[in-house]
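LOG
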Amino acid sequence: MLEILDTYSARATFFVIGSWVERLPDIVRDASRRGHEIANHTWTHADGDRIRELGALRDEVARTSEVIEQTVGVRPLLLRPPYGSDPGRYARVAADCRLDATVLWSVQTFDWQDPEDASSIVEQVAAEAEPGAIVLFHDGHRLKNDARPRRPTVQALPAALEWLRSNGYGMTTVSELLAA
């Protein structure tokens, strides 16, 4: 995926799971070195709708921010709640953990469903993209990250980036988008 993003001069924000950063630090460092933003997606992909204690969510976020900073040398600015669940509580936790914003998405590609035909992912991007859109792609398998990205996402990414570029969209990090 990093090679594909480079080919299209596209920069992205990777919302990473802390335990994966700990297991796969070289991949995270490589993404950061290539100019991509590394952001927080909790330690274990914690579903805020299922965790009652705010302290448990705080620990998920704080541990992830720490491992990201240790790995790439930059403290993350953003948090994406897993599943997009309970963004209000996660926003409070993000503020407690010195993160600037809690971010969701505006274009859901459904790539996490591992569709048989990658063209459905591109069709979602084309149908929902608009200025300022945040497109949600998944770079790995949540339950079994073996350092290999999802096949349908990898297959769809060049066509999605080409469609975005040919329709006048730039591909940048979420922090840069929010700053604009």
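LOG (cont.) second protein
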Amino acid sequence: MGSGQPWIGRWPLALVCFVVGFAFTVVQDVGDWVTYSDHSRQQLGIYVGKGLGFDAIHATGCLLFALAFGPALTRSIQRFARRLQVRWLASSTPTPSSPIVPSIAVLVVIGLLAGGRAPASASASAASKLSAPVSYLLGAQNGDGGFGAAPGQSSNALYSGWAALGLASAGYSPARLQRGSRGLIDYIKSSDGSARDVGSLERTILVIRSAGLSARSFAGHDLVAVLERHLKPNGSVSDQVNLTSFAVLALRSAGVAPSRRTLAWLVRQQGHDGGYGFAGAGSDSDVDDTGATLEALAGARVAGAAHARSRAVGYIRRHQDRDGGFPSMPGQGSNAQSTAWAIQGLDAAGVNANSLHRRGSVSAPDYLRGLIAANGSVSYARGDKETPVWVTGEALMALEGEPLPLAAVRAPAAMPLPATPAAATPRANSAALPWLVAGLGIVAALLLAAIGLGRGRRRRV
């Protein structure tokens, strides 16, 4: 047994693991900023800054692991490496054990430590959770092509429509949502293709346009013409703010510019507090209708529209609860659907909902992420899981930052549909993650190879 390469002690090895563990999590935070934000410096500071505490915890865990198990792990790697090296040694010439194989083994260990960890930052955790609501909705589709209020419940046009829009916001075309021989579009055609109810008609137009289908010829009907017949001479639909707002959104999705009369009617329905109510001017304002009207008035160039948008944004800002969410009516407590409409209204008005932190609260998107259950569904409120398919569909649009109307989804050639919501995997959208792990591992391996992992041994075959 002769002397070999210099020994790297317990503490140097632990410090290498600490640096690599911390560097990986910081790189992941930057990757989340690139993938899920508007790429501003402010957002970069938020993503990295919020993650530093979690990053430090992860790096400290790597350090402690190396301190506790480093020597034993090193001996195991050396023993395994020597066994791998036997076939390469000449029978008459002692050859020192190569540092490359131990370094490769260390690469694998560091990769496992980094890649298999719990989410390192609040931003990384939030982004990774979006795959869970998507998988939940995909797994909730029934054999008839539709969706019920919850997985396994009978299909309903209302829940099917909002599930479709939620999935479309995440890049899944409703035209390709298939379960067996029946698709979602087949279900919509058979259930409300004629769209007798105006609310169903508006929702159907939004869904089929997000699928890239024509609203002029669907299930034998010109849905645009049917909707236009519901408009009253004053420009409204049944003198109701919500139906008129969704009529504007549906027409826009079909490529039809809403009339100035309709937009002007919406502007006039604003309350003294800046909000909008279901029944128009004089009725109690609520967050849901205010958010939907902001979407309808986005980009509108009629008298008073810009001022109305500014006041509506102010109304929403004032009614954020301390938990970060929004109530339907002031004082009722936050819920996911009202929060989703607030976020979409703000997005449509060009206001970043992530920047809203009233009285030190978390942001509205963070409130929604906090309602995501283990199975991927979004709860209506804390401890309230009613109609999870409907709630998850609306929340997903807000979390994806996609206000109505949605653009047509360019469907991929093949779209995987999981059998159950349990198919969701953390960070499914982070395709670059394995490359980050491998790159950091290679740097660590080269460093350790240069200084030597342990005392080499000479061995005769």
